[in-house]
Amino acid sequence: MKNKNHLQKMKENKEKIAMMTAYDYPSAKLCQQSEVDMILVGDSLGMVVLGYDSTIQVTVEDMIHHGKAVKRGADDTFIVVDMPFMSYHLSIENSLMNAKRLYQETGGQALKLEGGSQEVITLVEKLTNAGIPVVGHLGLTPQSVNVLGGYKVQGKDKEKAQKLFDQALQLEKSGAMALVLECVPKELAEMVTNVLSIPTIGIGAGNMCDGQVLVYHDVLYYGVNRLPKFVKKYGDVNGATTTAIQAYVSEVKTGSFPTAEHSFTMDPQALPDKKL
Ligand code: KIV
Ligand code: NA
């Protein structure tokens, strides 16, 4: 399994890091088989797996439930687990308790926290000191969608760009092992990538980041019906699945499934006597 040092080395060697989300046993297994460098158990599971319209409803229990399944499917891959909405904002004690549970019960290798406020910076330092590696996340931070006013690119004006840049440096200083940059202009993502010594992982942040992350269901076009601008569709699971299910339904209705090939047989002598 890659560890924090391998990922750091990849940045130094200019070897790109491929990260993808996974939420359950089969998705994790397929990511590992496909040699993804890091798996993110993203709280995006609220939207793509649970059908909520944002990540705000996702709970610590949800993350643990899915994180454990991912771990069973990809025991040999570096797994990052998202801390969900408000699980790291109530108090230091509550945040540390939630972090402990998410880290210990899932068996993941790191936790990811959104934002760069002083509270988050302090927590990143405490968690790192306690032995829990932390990945930061700046730019579009979906847990704050209603404060940001929608899912849109972040850091386009001087003031916002400066703030993001300063927070990135602070996150690195406080011990973050990597930084996700979501929906950030590529010029700004490149500058942050060049200044930081930890790897940056972009999503909608151009091709100069040290790695990329995308959502499993978006990459595969699986259960989604529109894709953000920054996603490239690499498959069509919607199409393949619908075709397969329709064929099954149709063969059940016509009686052409199952045939002898999919049936068990026995000696008719051994059938029970009909006692009517
Ligand atoms: O939850 C998620 O999928 C994420 C990625 C978009 C970075 O946080
Ligand atoms: Na997330």
From TrEMBL:
The entry's keywords: Cytoplasm, Magnesium, Metal-binding, Pantothenate biosynthesis, Transferase
Keyword Cytoplasm: yes
Catalytic activity, EC: 2.1.2.11
Chief location of this protein within or outside the cell: cytoplasm
Location(s), subcellular: Cytoplasm
GO cellular component term of the entry, any: cytoplasm
Entry superkingdom: Bacteria
Pathway field: Cofactor biosynthesis; (R)-pantothenate biosynthesis; (R)-pantoate from 3-methyl-2-oxobutanoate: step 1/2
Chain positions recorded as Mg(2+) binding sites: 43, 82, 114
Family recorded in the similarity comment: Belongs to the PanB family.
PANTHER family assigned to the protein according to its UniProt record, in alphabetical order: 3-METHYL-2-OXOBUTANOATE HYDROXYMETHYLTRANSFERASE
Name of this chain's protein: 3-methyl-2-oxobutanoate hydroxymethyltransferase
Organism taxonomic ancestry: Bacteria, Bacillati, Bacillota, Bacilli, Bacillales
